[in-house]
Amino acid sequence: MSMISHVVTQLVEGYLKKATKNNIAADLQQEFTLRMQKAYNIAGYVCLGIASLSLVPPIFEKPDALYYFIVVPFILLFFGFFGALFILCYRHHRVVFNDTYIVVWSPLGKEKTTTFKKIVKTTFNATTGFLTLIDEDGQKLRVNQHLTGLHKFITQLRVKTGLYVVLPS
Predict the structure, then answer these.
(1) What CATH architecture does domain 22-36+95-169 belong to?
(2) In what order do the strands lie in the sheet with 130-135?
(3) pTM score
(4) Mean pLDDT of 46-67
(5) DSSP 15
(6) Which of 13, 41, 97, 147 could join 102 via S-S bond, C-beta 3.0 to 4.6 A?
């Protein structure tokens, strides 16, 4: 079972990383928009489905076992949390940029804006998968590594700020 899950994980990760290199075009205002991939939306609904399926056995069986009071809430919370997180990332998290400014929306829809001139530091956390941009005001903009067209943004960041960002390949 471990080998199958490893192969599936590698295939999904390869698919997600491939889309970050997709070429994106500017809109009429010469802005580029990076969006999360549809795989996040699909994974979110799969997780919510698993969470809701955990409610079926207690409905049809007598819930006198301690199993239903420990395992079912854990499955509900775990898969429900990640399902909601994936769907929120897909719907809200995006980055819009042009030659001057960057606007980042968080998974909860909170908007942060800065300019390329203000960015003084970048960090990448491989555990969370977020690239963090820190500007001279101390504002932190977090960008997910699986945004479609992210390499266009990283190239623009390198040209405008001189900062090099290395994402895992």
Answers:
(1) Roll (2.30)
(2) 119-125, 130-135, 140-144
(3) 0.80
(4) 79
(5) H
(6) 97
